[in-house]
Amino acid sequence: MPLVDMGDMLNHAYRNNYAVGGFDLVSLDFLESILDAAEHCRSPVILSLSELQFGQYDFELAMAATEKAARRARVPVAIQLDHGASFDSAVRAINLGCNGVMVDTSYEAFSANVERTQQLVETAHRCGITVEGVLGFVSGGDGDYAQRHPGHPVYTSVAEARTYAERTGVDCLAVSIGTVHGRMRGRPKLDFERLKRINSVVKLPLVIHGGTGLTEAQYHRMISCGVAKINCYTALADAAGRRIRENARADTRCGYAGIVKDIRERIRVEVEQCMRLWGSAGRAAEVIMQCQAWQPVQHIVMYNVEHGFESQIDSMMAHGTEMLAGIPGVRRVVSGRAISELSRFRFCWILEFVHKKVIESYRDHPDHAAFTNRFFRPIAGDRVAIDFAELDTAPVARSTVALQQMQG
Ligand SMILES: [Zn+2]
To answer: Which one of 170, 202, 316, 334 has the minimum C-beta count within 10 Å?
Structure first.
């Protein structure tokens, strides 16, 4: 169970004056180390997959591992698409299991950024998904992927932040106040006055991108000004990179296993340090108790076909699989026939929705209506349908975590 609603998680951090780390993962080494760190210091965590890094791994495969790892974690976890390139990227991420999305349209003119974000929020909220908006531009410094953020920084305007938050309905807002993606060049100078004013007008959890390399005092001050999520990748990548160089120097003939030896430990130490510094360490039990569990819903339809329509079944099933799988919030579409001739119903559809809100948005979606009216209703006869959530094991998970915390 420990996948939880990302909006609930961020609001808990915002209300209780700490920040959750959104850690970009690029491999299983990162995934496992980040979760090890979170479990070790009993912290909530956001596993972040950035579209800017999709050249390095297969997103679909990475999501399968990420979700599996999150579901068996003993701390609350959310999964976010970071720096999504488009609305379609966000829908794909939602259907693959992300429960938070960020699509970066901050390079657009203000009105276009508002319009595109509004459209995303409308669709995402109908699927129960949390949306991170972006205003201003956090440019790149040094390090992996820093060059993916070329140009000069643009600080977030307080007046625009207010209008943007009101018009778009985003759940949290990424702002630019002087951090950089990658490594800082020189001493970081942050505009806290601006951050404070943005917080006082938007009253939403704020997000900092480029969370590497700041001082303890700077992190604390950011959090006191409303920052509830800090994105971090470079510190982890650098820790792994340093270890790889040490390994290569120590044994110039080593192979893959020798080169990557102990990098998990280095990443874990780095993540844990962030969690302690940002105040999320030790908060897992509270978050699990106070946040909604993130649970998929199964939608099952069993039916028979009217006499004489058997020959159209395969075509109807093929159309349905294609048309329904693209609807936002639909994770899986399976159609099939009963194995036994004696079954009360001969055919079925099984769909998995990311969240119970999708029951309604799916029913109202034009692709669903088109499929039903054109292909399904004309041949389907007698049928039954049910939507159900998997048995909630949350109370057991909650009491286990609470007990573990009490026992220290
Ligand atoms: Zn970023």
So the answer is: 334
Among 24, 82, 144, 171, the one annotated catalytic: 82
Strands 206-208 and 130-135: unpaired
Q: Which has the minimum average pLDDT: 30-39, 300-309, 345-354?
A: 300-309
Burial 334-362 (b: 16+ CB within 10 A, else e): ebeeeeeeeeeebbbbebbbbbebbeebb
Tokens standing for residue 388:
């159900």
**DSSP per-residue letters across 130-194:** EEEEEESB--B-BSTTGGGS-S--BPPPHHHHHHHHHHH--SEEEE-SS--BSBPSS-----HHH
CB-CB contact of 299 with 327 (8 Å): no
This model's pTM is above 0.90:
yes
CA of residue 404 to ligand 1 center, whole Å: 34
Structure-token match 């490594």, residue found: 183
Residues at Cβ < 5 Å from ligand 1 ion: 209
CA of 182 to the centre of ligand 1 (A): 9
Catalytic status, residue 82: yes
